[in-house]
Specification:
8-stranded mixed sheet; alpha/beta; Rossmann fold; single chain; 8 helices; SIR2/SIRT2 'Small Domain'
């Protein structure tokens, strides 16, 4: 159980796995391809300058998928946690959908941009809401200055948004939770290293993140379990991590790994169809088993 005191400041980094349970595919989950294009070929400044129509086709597809998605229990749990912790909670998401806001969260940092916003590629016009699709033969949007309107997204090779707010929040946090993130994309992958040794660091996910040696002290891996369907709602901050587990899209198999354990394995039955094992990690070679119930 995650215990949050009245003085703790909690930083949550939400990765693609949090939205995957709502039906939004991840870049890694689709093999990094769209119509046989590598993601970098449709999500980069170079792609925009080379073929803006292709880029808008890609983001129109993403808008269509995101429009059909609904928040899952993880999104609602974070919104409830915000109600409890107020300014002591800082949610930073790598996702560009609006599911956090639909669930009731009011203060979410979208470090990689927002799918349903646009901005001009030429002038300093502020980003603005737009839910339109620009599939052919639709005319591509233009700004009044004559510049082209692009998705308000941080593409490969660009600097993420709101780093001036993110890094101070990392410096202040006493609890750091990474949920459903691969641990590959920088600078988010290095956040845990920045707080290591000062904050409690927890990873919640279906498999080891790439930055496993970056400083995670506690890790929780999940395995699907058939035949168990129970529902409950979070009634305390201690249950939020349990609900985050539900939001991760994971395969039906045992997950195994080699870690050192500081305490015995603890089976933890959670709502719906997952079983997790809570363990403290010291990174010494011992055996870990997922437990089915």
């Amino acid at each position: 159980m995650l215990r949050v005191s009245s003085t703790d400041r909690v930083f949550i980094l939400a990765g693609a796995g949090v939205s995957a349970e709502s039906g939004i595919p991840t870049f890694r989950g689709v093999g990094g391809l769209w119509r046989n294009y590598r993601i970098e070929e449709v999500a980069s400044p170079e792609a925009w300058h080379r073929d803006p129509r292709l880029v808008w086709e890609f983001y129109s597809m993403r808008r269509r998928v995101a429009s059909a998605a609904k928040p899952n229990p993880a999104h609602f749990a974070l919104a409830k946690l915000e109600d409890a912790l107020q300014e002591r909670l800082f949610v930073c998401t790598q996702n560009v959908d609006s599911l956090h806001e639909q669930a009731g969260s009011r203060n979410v940092i979208h470090m990689h941009g927002e799918l349903f916003k646009n901005r001009c590629d030429t002038c300093s016009r502020a980003p603005f809401e737009d839910t339109s699709l620009y599939d052919p033969p639709a005319e591509l949007p233009r700004c009044g200055c004559g510049g082209r309107i692009r998705p308000h997204i941080c593409w490969f090779g660009e600097v993420p948004f709101d780093l001036d707010r993110i890094f101070p929040a990392l410096d202040e946090c006493t609890v750091f939770i990474a949920a459903g993130t691969s641990g590959v994309v920088e600078p988010a992958a290095s956040f845990v290293a920045q707080v290591n040794g000062r904050a409690r660091t927890i990873y919640v996910g279906a498999e080891e993140p790439a930055n496993i040696t970056g400083g995670f002290y506690s890790m929780e891996l999940m395995s699907r379990a058939a035949g168990h369907r129970r529902r409950c709602r979070p009634n305390s901050t201690n249950e939020v991590v349990a609900h985050l587990r539900m939001a991760l899209a994971i395969q039906y198999k045992f997950l195994s790994a080699t870690y050192g354990l500081k305490r015995d394995l603890v089976p933890f039955t959670i709502p719906s169809r997952f079983v997790a094992v809570v363990r403290e990690v010291t990174f010494q070679e011992q055996r870990f088993e997922c437990i089915r119930q």
